[in-house]
Amino acid sequence: MNQEAVSPYEMTLSLNVLEHLGINLYSNVPSVLSEVVANAWDADADEVHITFDRAAGRIEIRDTGIGMTQEEVNERFLRVGYQRRVDQEPLTPERNRAPMGRKGIGKLSLFSIAGTVEVYTVKNGGKSALQMKLNDIREAIKNKNQGIYRPPELSIDGIDFTKGTKIVLSDLRRQQTISTAKALRKRIARRFSIIGAKQDFDVFVNEEQITPADRDYHSKLQYTWTYDNQEDVVALATTLSRDSEDRTAIVEAKGIRVSGWLGTVHESGQLKDEESGDNLNRIAIFVRGKMAQEDILDDFSERGVYASYLIGELRVDILDEDDQEDAATSSRQHLVEDDPRYIKLKEVLGDELKHIQNKWSEWRTDDGAKKALEIPELTDWVDKLPSGQKKNAKSWLGRIYRLRTNDQEERKQLLKHAVFAFEFHRANENLGALDRIHDENLDSVLEIFSELDSLESNLYGQIVQQRVAVIRTLQEKVDADNREQVIQRFLYEHLWLLDPHWERVEASELMEARIDKLFSEVDAQLTKEEKAGRLDIKYRKSAGTHIIIELKRPSRVVDIAETTKQLEKYYSGFTKLLEKQGVDEPLEMVLVLGKPPREWANPKGQERFRGVLDNYNARLVFYDELLENAFRSYKDYLDQKQAVDRLQAIIQAIENYTA
Q1: With contact defined as beta carbons under 8 Å apart, do 468 and 509 qualify?
Q2: pTM above the 0.85 mark?
Q3: What CATH architecture is 216-367?
Q4: Which residue blocks in 433-559 are alpha helix, DSSP H?
Q5: pLDDT tens-digit readout, 361-393
Q6: Of 140, 261, 526, 573, which sees the most CB atoms within 10 A?
């Protein structure tokens, strides 16, 4: 039977319209379903039920709206470009709602996710049903100059509802853009501000009702700024650190009506929603209760750290008034950037963002200081500061909570650094005050030096603790077979592994060039076997002492004769270099071995070998002793430092603190 002769339904469109305003209109399932939900709102539905069956590749959307007659299916649903605002009353007939639909192209978006669309609808007892297939539409458009497609009728026997419309999507093309029913509820909730009992419009996904709480960001808010009455939003924001600031009057005074809220979260990482895939670091613009632009924040390039904590929803209905040109682009996902209303919105929003930035910095600092002072030792430290410095100290601590980090351990380290930095700042101020201290006021001078001693002691204590941690890591996590390689890379720039007194390496390009030449001359006199036995050799200078460090290969076994010959060459050559420069400074040589020297096990062998080393102010260290000796030196320092003073107690308290 000829399909076109019997079908009472007719759709007229071009292939270009189908491709650009249908298949390519949207890129994900929630966006498409939002168009269907919006149609249900316009149809005066009080309930919308979405059933998502990933396994079957099927989505069903049923609403309790007024439905359509067969004639209305043709005139309104199948008519691409149907202007609802022109052809119907400005408000819906039963619930006096401001309709969301305007351009009459949203129904084409169904084909961006589904190859087959079935429509079942009931109005005033009359039932209608039809099926549309994407491939059939394409073929009909190609074969008919008129661009007419006649969807076949479906049986109405299976329609089991008395009012409303059901749309069934199958042959799904983009179901991978949604992971779970929960994620779908979340994303639909975020696209509408009218879902819920307040507007008598309930939406369900797999029979579970969507609520405003499904947006899943209100409970993360720390500060909010509201426009118009937002009691419901504030009630959901259960972790606010301060009362919400109402900005309605300020914005209205600038000539624009805005409803909604802007807010900042406690941690920037809370704005990454892995489950739904949404980036919540945005300000969404809603028109008539539906998202019109997912993010306007990107339009503002001048943004501080606060902006990475920012989220918001603003309803701006002036962007879609019946008697004015539509401010939305064809996709209904963005607004026209050069529309005067959009420009005005950006101007006002820009002022609001500046205000929020200032308030965020102020509040975040104050609340951050309160958070830091939950540590009793920090509170005691601040209380004992001179009265003129307490406010500054709190500010230093509070600023840590303005830095972009979600890592609590990193924040602990920053708090420690803040304490030391403030103490150094105080020390500099004290030193600057020395000129103002009278000569006879010796006690004031001694107090300043005492504080400097304490600060230096504590800072060095932190350095020691970090070094002990490094040594422990090398001992525990670096395999013995690879430890020499790690030491080789680490030792030359961190001489404290050899001697705690060698804190800093002093650079001297001229001396290093001359020493490199000396090493080359010595190498030329070594045997092939002696060269092969060397892992590396370097020159360093620390605290006025010239240091030559030679690492032998771990498997290399040296003897007294070889060692004496090499030490003599280094010592005599280096001494001549210093004499030429008129410098009389000490030279120390360190020999790092993996195995004991050949004479080591002989009677008095160790004594003889060390005697040779003493003649040249040299010493021997074994690889396996190196870490243990360094660990013992620093551990002894920490153990002997039993009288832990106030700064050390503070640092330890920060380390032990659990928020």
Answers
A1: no
A2: no
A3: 2-Layer Sandwich (3.30)
A4: 442-477, 480-491, 509-524, 528-532
A5: 999 999 999 999 999 989 998 998 888 888 888
A6: 261
